Amino acid sequence: MNNPAIRAAVQPFIDRGGLAGVVALVADRERILSIDAFGWADIEAKKPMQPDTMAWIASQTKPITAMLLMMVVDEGLIDLDAPLETYLPEFKDQWVAVEADEEHMLLRKPHRPATVRDTLSHLSGMGFATALETPTLDGLPLAVAVRSYAMTPLQTEPGTRYSYSNEGINVAGRLVEMASGMPYERFLEERLAKPLNLSDTTFFPTAAQAARIARAYRPNEAGTALEAVEISQLTYPLTASGRYPMPAGGLFSTAADCARICQVALNQGEFEGRRYLKQATHQEMTRRQTPLDIPEICGLGWHPAADHYGHGGAFASGMWIYPDRNHILVWLPQAAGFLHDGAQALDAFKAAALQC
Fold first, then answer.
1. pLDDT, tens digit, for every residue of 152-162?
2. Residues near 308 by Cβ (< 8 Å), separated by ≥ 6?
3. Three-class DSSP category at 89
């Protein structure tokens, strides 16, 4: 299912050494139109990228978590506009920091509590991670991590400022647990992964899956070549016990699995005869949630734009849905940085893919 136009657009960036490798996929609401693998999954081992190469999709996990939370909203188990303390009592009487330096911090009560909706639109006032989440972000049970967020002062007043927040999305994952009565990862498996046949979407890769995960690369200090790096947010080995799910950014997946998730979205909550979300719920997720006086535009887990919506990941990956064009684009490099003009490969892919 290679696409000659996409191969011609992307291959020069690989040949110039701008990025190590990438899997690029185009789909519509029913099927995969093309899938192209470029370059290396492991430069040192001379292991090429394959269509089923797995990648850490990082923050592409966020809209997946949002879909799961909206499932329990659809079932009436969670009120999107309720304060967090309604379901998580530890968030009662939270404080917000109004001044802080190395010697002092001034706190006050927020004008209103953070709501469920705020967690999915990055308006909760929470930060990226707390002091307990070291040295990695997957070392605490979700309930413990969320409790540490409740004990930490908010950075901004809820609803007043966009602040990209892993903590908020992790809270959304914890709300899924509270509403469903099952661990987040089990809910993901039973309500999305199994029905959608997402055989390679997981927080916990098996040994066989770990062998298919592409290595991440960044420019060396001299800027002359790419060097391999580990995922600093996660514990190694990735197959080890003692790792916990991170709803804000812990999933590994393939391009094909990401496409199936996006097909649910492109079909407004329904795919292959199964409804995952109400149509109105999907529409709510993909409309602007941030106030007009805030420059950033965010939906519920998704980032909407003029003609598409989507989400990216820390290693330059992403998935985007173009409803009017009936197109899904998935781009899975593992790039912690680029050499030369490697960062422009994505634009070249999009330009070619949208002509399919």
1. 999 999 999 99
2. 320, 321, 322, 323
3. helix
Give the C-alpha separation, 77 to 41, whole Å.
Answer: 42
Can you tell me the distance from the alpha carbon of 198 to that of 244, in angstroms, rounded to the nearest whole number?
20
DSSP per-residue codes, 134-145:
-S-TTSS-HHHH
Q: What is the tens place of the pLDDT at every residue in 239-252?
A: 988 999 999 999 99
How many angstroms separate the CA atoms of 61 and 3, rounded? 27
Q: Quick one: average pLDDT of 229-243?
A: 95
Query: What is the SS3 assignment for 174?
Result: helix
**For tokens 């292959």, what's the residue?**
272
Number of H helices, E strands in the chain: 11, 15
Whether 111 and 157 have beta carbons less than 8 Å apart is answered as yes
* The two structure tokens encoding residue 188: 């993901």
Q: Residue 101: what pLDDT?
A: 78
Helix segments in the chain, DSSP class H: 4-15, 61-74, 116-121, 142-150, 166-180, 184-188, 194-196, 207-210, 255-266, 279-285, 345-353
